[in-house]
Write a structure and sequence with these properties.
The chain has 18 helices and 15 strands. By secondary structure, the chain is of the alpha/beta class. It starts with a strand and ends with a helix. The protein is globular.
Length: about 425
């Protein structure tokens, strides 16, 4: 196998410099080196080894060089590489980051490939929509993850609840029943704004909307206010703090104490729960956040990654083929089963049947969404006005006034 997994960026730069004439030491004539940046821990060493060996065997004129990047500071690093022209050929980026990179006009337009070769019509919306800027597809969906309800099976049984709820009304009734004595029906921190976003979308609202080419906050719309009221009702069925998010304290640690019936979290929180309380290992269950009707789960924020190709990629043609392979059915199936991710297409959801947590994610992912597709959205999250807005409502302030103030701050941040 010809693969080279480079441990640091300096190694990648050295390799790229040597490949300026199309050859690296030891390579035969015509061999092309495709350089790939992946994010740390996005794939296992075993998956990468399998993919690289198989791909290079099927494409003997191509050699893959992969480096892992840290999430911290990655935005500046990718933007600098795009601007300099000294870029890798394929880059993994967060699905909500595509817009800021597309704004540089340095990404290759993959619309043709997405329609012709990659089955764009079946992509998960939470990955596909952020990758589409003004009608052009720059980000190719790779993998997804989203929040589900993690619950304590023992506490459900003690409350006489035999199976997870399928509708919001039933969920609220069950949670109220669970919220009794020393047991919290649900631990929901007051500033879990990703969960709030799902309720807002489920009611037909938005965090921000584009009007006349400008983005404006819309938390004060009637639909968004309904979503906040759904959150308020649910949050009251436990003892979560009103003025902190799900990481303060980490909600997995709270759940691990054994007296919380439910939390809303990505399934990987189960590992932290079990680490904190090994006795809960066989007592955890998972279900999609229920929607208004049994046939449609609640909308959820979809996290995950897209693959992009810089406009100045030296091996653009080969890079496109690498992306097609990574986003195709064979390697999507392998990646989903190996890493417990949701694959990039709704039609592939069945490949994770038998993995309870991932299967619950896959059901919800069909209604996944992403944050507003503005290149300035990161500025909103830097000093997030949604969090204090939520606290204000939960502590009794007028929802419409608080929403209007938060919407104005979102508009200011999105104005750049």
């Amino acid at each position: 196998m010809k693969k080279r997994l480079l441990a640091c960026t300096s190694a990648l730069v050295s390799a790229t410099a040597l490949s300026g004439c199309g050859l690296l030491p030891g390579e035969g004539p015509g061999t092309r080196t495709v350089t790939v940046w992946l994010m740390k821990n996005s794939v296992s060493d075993d998956f990468l080894a399998r993919f690289t060996e198989a791909y290079e065997k099927e494409n003997p004129s191509v050699e893959l060089e992969v480096t892992f990047q840290e999430w911290t500071g990655i935005g500046k690093k990718v933007t600098s590489a795009l601007e300099s022209g000294d870029t890798p050929d394929v880059i993994e980026v967060g699905n909500t980051q595509v817009a800021q990179y597309a704004e540089t006009d340095k990404l290759y337009d993959l619309t043709l490939e997405s329609v012709r070769d990659l089955g764009r019509e079946d992509w998960l919306p939470g990955l596909a929509e952020p990758g589409s800027i003004k009608g052009s597809q720059y980000g190719i969906p790779w993998y997804a993850a989203n929040r589900v309800v993690i619950y304590n099976k023992d506490l459900f049984r003690r409350a006489g609840i035999e199976e997870p709820p399928k509708t919001r009304a039933q969920w609220f009734d069950d949670t109220e029943k669970l919220n009794d004595g020393d047991t919290q029906g649900i631990y929901l921190a007051g500033q879990d704004w990703y969960t709030l976003a799902g309720f807002i979308w489920d009611e037909g609202g938005e965090l921000a909307v584009e009007k006349g080419g400008e983005w404006v906050g819309s938390l004060d719309s009637p639909a968004a206010l309904k979503g906040m009221d759904v959150y308020r009702q649910l949050q009251s069925l436990g003892s979560g703090p009103t003025d902190a998010d799900e990481e303060n304290p980490p909600q997995a640690q709270v759940f691990a104490k054994g007296d919380v019936a439910q939390i809303i979290a990505a399934p990987n929180a189960a590992s932290a729960i079990i680490k904190g309380n090994p006795g809960l290992k066989d007592k955890l269950g998972f279900f999609p956040i229920p929607g208004k009707t049994a046939d449609k789960p609640c909308a959820v924020f979809t996290g995950g990654s897209d693959l992009i190709i810089p406009e100045k990629a030296r091996e653009r043609g080969a890079a496109i083929d690498v992306v097609k392979a990574l986003a195709g059915e064979k390697w999507q199936t392998d990646l989903a089963r190996t890493m417990s991710y949701v694959p990039n297409k709704s039609t592939l959801a069945s490949v994770v049947d038998g993995q309870a947590a991932t299967a619950a994610m896959a059901v919800a992912a069909a209604r996944g969404r992403a944050t507003p597709n503005s290149p300035q959205w990161a500025a909103v999250e830097t000093d997030n006005p949604i969090k204090p807005y939520m606290t204000a409502v939960l502590e009794g302030q007028d929802p419409k006034q608080a929403a209007k103030a938060a919407s104005n701050r979102i508009t200011d941040a999105l104005s750049g």
